[in-house]
Amino acid sequence: MNRLILLIILLMPVNFISAQTEYFPDDLQFQPFMANALEPKLGFLFELGKNELRLDIGNSLDIVKWGSEEAAYSIGADLFTYTLLRGETNFHFPVHAVDYLFGLNFAYKRKVGENEVGARLRLSHISAHLVDGHYDWQNDLWLDGHKPRVYSREFLELMPYYKLSDLRVYLGLTYIYHVDPVYIGKGNYQVGFDYIARDFISQGISLFAGYDLKLIIISKFSGNNSVVGGIKFGKYEGKGFSIYFQYYSGNSIHGEFFDFKTDYSALGLNLDL
Q: What is the pTM of this model?
């Protein structure tokens, strides 16, 4: 880890290292990709027509940012949980599974005329766990015969993008250098875009949409599709509140169900911190 950070610093131009530096800035320099599953969220996703929902409690934080309006770097941290629940009477929400992600990120962006280019490099760990809501206590067995299993991965993820006005197009390459189970493929490939209509309705109310395709390898290549669209109240690239629709098809994002196929439409509520 220390060697990676040192290498990044050594590769940076001297004029950027000596440029204006800000510690713990209010907003993220690198905005999350709207349709990408592994992005910071703080809210709920209610599956339509099913008795399932997801609770996301996570945040990304820039620790230090430096550069100028023309070009800037940042180093930050990620800490997420995403949890699969079901609804019951009396406001009970048994938890089926929970996943944890934590790691560091390194970001860069530069103005190119009226447009922008940038990239984010992540070094992260994910682990997954079944919880007591997935256990049938009366019959003393795990639901659907699905017992807990070890799932974890450590990976490097590089996601460059090109932004043309309010449209951002990106690619993604993930190298998983350690994974359990060991037969999961070590390369993920990704492409997508997002668009935000800034202050479309009035000042502080924006519309957004995005699409993400991720190719993963389990026993063979499989495609995960995510489509989102919604409305955001607040800063279009900062703090606010979002209401959105999402359609997802592909392998479950929850590690305990990594080889399960899922297909759902959902309504999401999210606080952008």
A: 0.88
